[in-house]
Amino acid sequence: MVATRAAERRTAIVAADATCPRCGTPRGPGDRYCLACGLRLPVVAGTVPALRRRWLRRLGWYPGDWVWLSLASLVVAAAGAAVAIAVTTRDREAKPAVYTAPGQVAVAEPTGIPVRPQSTVDTRKLPSAPEPNIPARRVSWPASENGWTIVLVSYPRVSGRATARATVDRAVKANLRRVGIIDSGNYASLQPGYYVVFTGIYASKVDADAAVGTAKQAGFAGAYSRQIAR
After folding, report:
1. In terms of CB atoms within 10 Å, which of 59, 198, 225, 230 comes out highest?
2. Would you say residue 24 lies in a domain?
3. Is position 45 within any domain?
């Protein structure tokens, strides 16, 4: 089991370095843009790629290069908060507060204030809200139907099935709806040889594009809309 998991993580590292994170097209070592979809490709040399590989080797998934900027911002914010707390505490200790008891205060009791009767509402006549229609989280693409979806990640079909399932679990934990896996070889609109992890089934590109932001906020920075057609 440990050997299988390690092999899956090595496959994920190879996929992150050798394929486009948007469409899964193989890339060359010197390519700066994807030859299929035009995406600006992440660099594969330097500090950030090394951290990306270490993350994948330890956890088996990777949220995107944006996570390092977020962590750095969090560290700076925490340091600033600690300095502010320290300065405030020092000022309080240096200047202790002195409280003076006020003199006698005369309080006049109000008189002659009319009391308005409280109106009552018959809650039995209030309408009840309908139950929300929550779609299933894990789904399969409808048979013999075309449409649009949001591609989260694509994995090579040779050894990416387990990694794709792990990505589906992560998407479900991130509260994404209608998540599933597509074998790209069954659809003419996709490049064959990949397991495509998707979320959402839409009738038009406009609807799919409107939901891409939700997928990116859930940790899938490379998410994009794609037509699914046989």
Report:
1. 198
2. yes
3. yes
The parent domain of residue 18 ranges over 2-67
Residue corresponding to tokens 């956890």: 59
Per-residue pLDDT tens for 167-205? 999 999 999 989 999 999 999 999 999 999 999 999 999
Strand partners, 151: 198, 224
Return the amino acid letter for 148: W
8 A C-beta contact, residue 220 and residue 179: no
pLDDT tens-digit profile of 30-68?
A: 788 988 888 888 877 778 778 777 767 777 666 666 666
Beta strands of the chain (E only): which ranges?
147-156, 179-183, 194-202, 224-228
Residue 39 CA, distance from chain mean position: 20
The pTM for the full model equals: 0.44
Residue 181's domain is classified under what CATH number?
3.30.70.1070
Which of the listed residues 18, 43, 67 is the one where a domain comes to its end?
67
230 exposed, middle or buried (CB, 10 Å; 0-12, 13-18, 19+)?
exposed
| Domain end (from 20, 52, 67) | 67
What is the Cα–Cα distance from 228 to 109, expressed in whole angstroms? 76
